[in-house]
Structure formats: C-alpha cells, structure tokens
TrEMBL record, chains A, B:
Transmembrane segments: none
Stretches assigned to the Ketopantoate reductase N-terminal domain: 3-147
Protein name: 2-dehydropantoate 2-reductase
Any one Gene Ontology cellular component term annotated for this protein: cytoplasm
Reaction equation(s) it catalyzes: (R)-pantoate + NADP(+) = 2-dehydropantoate + NADPH + H(+)
Function: Catalyzes the NADPH-dependent reduction of ketopantoate into pantoic acid.
UniProt-listed Enzyme Commission number(s): 1.1.1.169
InterPro entries: 6-PGluconate_DH-like_C_sf, 6PGD_dom2, ApbA, Ketopantoate_reductase, KPA_reductase, KPR_N, NAD(P)-bd_dom_sf
Top EC class of this enzyme: oxidoreductase
GO terms for MF: 2-dehydropantoate 2-reductase activity; NADP binding
Keyword set, alphabetical order: NADP, Oxidoreductase, Pantothenate biosynthesis
Involved pathway(s): Cofactor biosynthesis; (R)-pantothenate biosynthesis; (R)-pantoate from 3-methyl-2-oxobutanoate: step 2/2
Length: 297, 297
C-alpha cells in the first residue's frame, strides 16, 4: 500500500513515521532541502526514552502524487492554495484531512476523489528539525467519513497502539469540538505567553476564557455547553505544561493559524449578524503579535 | 509656606522636588527607610542632562500632618485606606488630589477640608530609587477646584516652568479624559508588553484599541468622541518609546492600578445595565498577569 503525506511539519512527520511501519510512505515537503534530508537520513521519532528511525521517501510537492491514500497534513492556510491550484495532481483513491478549524470544508466539496475523511489529531508533537519529531503526548486521531465508504480507510485499524485512530459518526460535532478547544486555548496562550495549564490555574484567566467560550458557543450554536466547557478545561489540565502551537508560532515569528480558527468564528458571526466583540478584540491582539514577528518580547 | 506630599512614588517625588524650590516640603512615605534616606541624602531630580538635589523633610505617614497644603500622591488603591482611616490626621487648609481614575471622588466628598482641588499629572516620571526620580517627559498638571476657592491654590502659579499647572473649569471632563487615556493605553500595553507607540504603529493593535474605545465611551457617555479618540492616539505617538506605568508594574510584579481605571468602568456599566464584554475580558487578562507576579515572561 502506498501512502502519501502532504506536509513535513510536526503532524505530517508524526503521521508518516507511524504509517511507515506498515506501508510505503512518501512525504511531500515544501522545501527541496527537507526532502533530501529525509531521503538521506530517514525520519526519526522520539517518544519518551525511545528513538526510532524510519526509511521514507520524500519529494518536494511539485510533481504529481500517485498513492492509494493521501494524508493532508499542511496548515489550513497552505491547504487552500494546494486545493485550488494543485488539485488535479492529487491522484489518490482516498484523502484524509488533518486540519484544525472548519474553513477547509468548503474546498473539500469540490474534490473529485471518491473517498474523503476528516480527522482531528489529539497528539502532542514537536518538530525538532527537518527529519526529527518528538511525540510529546500520545493521544488519538478521531476521524469520520465525509464522502464515500468507511471501508476505504480500513488500513487505519492496523496502525500502532501509540498512534490509534478512533472512528466517530458525526464529523461536524467532531470538528466543532476541536475548533472550540483551539479557539479557547491557542489565542489566549499565545497572547498571554503562558502554558496551557495556566488558563485554568489562575481564576482571572479562567473567567476570561469562559467569557470567550460563551460568545463563541452562541455563534457556533454549540449544544451541550457544560460538557464542552468541562472538556476544554480538562484538556488544559491534561496538557498543563505544553506550550500551544500558536504560542510557539508567535515566539518563533511564524504565521499562526489564527485565521483558520478565530477569523472563521468571526465570519460565522458576521453572516448571522451576531456581535462578536471579544473574538474580534482577541483576533486583533494576536494579529498584532504576529506582525511584531516574535520580536515583541 | 508648608507643603505636605503624601506618597514617595514617582509622582510624589517629582512634585516634592519642584515644590521645594519655593516652599518648605515634607514628604510622607509608607516606609521608614525611604524617609530616613530622603532626610539624609535629599531628593534628586534628573531632567535631561541636569541633575539637582533638593533638601526635603520626610517622615513615615503615621504622625499627623500639619501643612498649609497637602498633595495626595499615592495610588488610588492606597488612597481609600488613608481617607477612611487617617482622615482626622490630614490637617491642612487645602488638599490636591493627583490620582488616576475617578473612584476616589466618592471619598473626597466626606472630607472636612475647606479647599479641595483635583488634578491630573501629564508628566513622564520614573522612580529610580528611594531618593531619585527621572523627569522623563515635561508636560503639565491640569487642575480644577472641586470645593472652595481657586485663590487658595494661587501658589501653583509660582512653580517652575518645568512643572507648570494649568487651571480648567470642568473637573469632570478633565478626569474623564485622563481616565480614557489610562483605560486605553495602560491595560493594553501591560498585556501586550509593548511601549505606547506600538498601539498606533500596528493596525491590528489600533483596531483593538478602537473597539475598546467605543465600548468605554458608551459606558461613560463621552461626548466629542472623535476629538478624544484623536487625543488618545496623539498621546501614544508623543510617548511612543515610553513603557506605561501599568506595564512597569506588571514587569516588576507590583500591584497595578487596573481597579482604579478598568474596574471603575465595569462598575459604571453594571449600574446602567450596559454590557461591557471587552472591558471585562481585558480586566481579567490583566488581573491574571498581576497574579503571575511578573514571573510570566
């Protein structure tokens, strides 16, 4: 079986490593240099005390793909470009999307592929260099079929117990819950420059997060508010020492996923003529930090 | 003429230094140690390249005051304590209040003194140590009579041209404008850890500040919105390199004046049943930073 992974970031490398245990994996990178290093040195995963190196193929994403299954593991803001300009080259029987947010759904519907799945990654992963990823937290990947048949993805049942997949029926609820987690934890930790646990350790921070929660829950018509609010707080506690991906992006002067998550919420609010004062305010503050380019400390 | 200055912070020391040029000044400090140092070493002001040392009296604020005029130069949160428990010791013909915010007005009305003035300090001042203050920006002190006669404060006309006083008729507008400046610049710079100028240099920051401006202006029924919005932006540009007092408080792990300025706005909103989502959110974030105690960097 041939599996293609589009994206050489933390999630792409982690997925590639575990998939390579039972399939022929090709990683499609943005940069030539990373592809060359991966072909030459292999792909190393560090999980606890264990360090394993896997042989993988890698090539820049300029040529056509020709795999049985494609994992789309790029950030949402890169995905738009790939789906609109390179879609004809994405030959595969099945595609799995691993993005945060929900903004990519509108593009997915235009794809010609027979089987399409949506997934959310609940692992902790930190890219150390072009060929090394640290598996900082073993979680799971929830997935759901968006188009086609579930059996087209049956190979997901055979992955390592350290990289399990869990099927859920309702892709919209799955994505909405992940979106809520991302909306609440990422911008606040990035703005405040604190690890996830601080958001529930200090009462004023929790109160601010709760204010944001109620605003966003109204905009997205979230049912079971209390359950999801508890879920978000649990994740803060379970990942207390983690620095969120958005915080790391800000600290490194990289572009963040703020548009995929918070701008998406503001757009939904505008469509419905619902006010979104806190989301809009927070969005501007994080955008400003992004502009400072990591030099704001 | 005997002038008492209650408070040995940046504003208290600056006021004491310039007043000591034409009057007998006593500084009332919180700590014994500072009073002793001021008596022994004098009070030094650095303004540009000039450095001048002034002889002053100083004593801890435990004894009674016996001055012709008292300047109240403590933070608003210390003022409440002084006015409610030590008011009988504040013997003076006239009192001038130099606080930010408007929360102290309710206490002022209970004072027995014949002449009471309210003032807002528009100087830049940075306390270096217990006996040294840097005059980082020469501005002015606006003042207005709250009770009694203007002539009771005629000595203000004789102060140094580096420390001018300007009379205004309407104390409420004067305090409201200063409150708007403080509400908009202080919490945002403290949260974002940026100098004042950054709030207008980056469009997203200016947009966030403008959102906050409109919310607060509605709560406080600010007239002439456009003029005041321009005024706030002008101050950001004029003090572009300054780090606000609240930012310095957060960085040093000190208590901030967030309650005197933003909690006051939220109280006014609650009284009128006007929503204050952004003010409330921002208040919680700064309170959390205060709790982190300067260790959040």
């Amino acid at each position: 079986m041939r599996i293609g992974i589009v994206g050489g970031g933390a999630v792409g490398l982690l997925t590639a490593a575990y998939m390579s245990q039972s399939a022929h994996v090709t990683i499609y990178t943005r940069r030539h240099e990373q592809a060359e290093k991966l072909c030459a040195n292999g792909l190393t995963v560090i999980c606890g005390d264990e360090k394993t190196t896997h042989r993988v193929q890698a090539t820049p994403f300029v040529c056509e793909t020709n795999d049985d299954v494609l994992f789309m593991a790029v950030k949402q803001y890169d995905l738009t470009n790939i789906l609109t300009t390179h879609v004809h080259m994405l030959q595969a029987n099945a595609i799995i999307f691993l993005q945060n947010g929900m903004g990519h759904i509108r593009y997915v519907s235009r794809l010609p592929h027979e089987h399409i799945a949506l997934a959310v990654v609940e692992h902790g992963a930190l890219k150390v260099d072009d060929t090394t990823v640290v598996h900082t937290g073993v979680g799971q990947t929830k997935w759901s079929v968006w188009r086609g048949e579930q059996h087209a993805f049956s190979f997901l049942l055979r992955t390592s117990s350290r990289f399990p997949f869990q099927y859920v029926d309702d892709w919209e609820t799955m994505l909405l819950e992940k979106l809520m987690v991302n909306v609440l934890i990422n911008p606040l930790t990035a703005l405040l420059r604190v690890p996830n646990g601080m958001l529930v350790a200090h009462d004023p921070y929790r109160q601010a997060m709760e204010q944001l929660f109620h605003e966003v829950a109204s905009i997205l018509h979230i049912e079971q508010r209390e359950r999801i609010w508890q879920h978000v707080q649990t994740i803060c506690r379970q990942t207390a020492a983690n620095r969120s991906s958005m915080l790391r992006d800000i600290e490194s002067g990289r572009r963040t996923e703020i548009d995929a998550i918070l701008a998406y919420v503001i757009e939904r609010a505008n469509e419905q003529h619902i006010p979104a004062p806190i989301s809009t305010f927070l969005y501007s503050l994080v955008k400003g930090k992004e502009l400072e380019g990591g030099k704001g400390r």
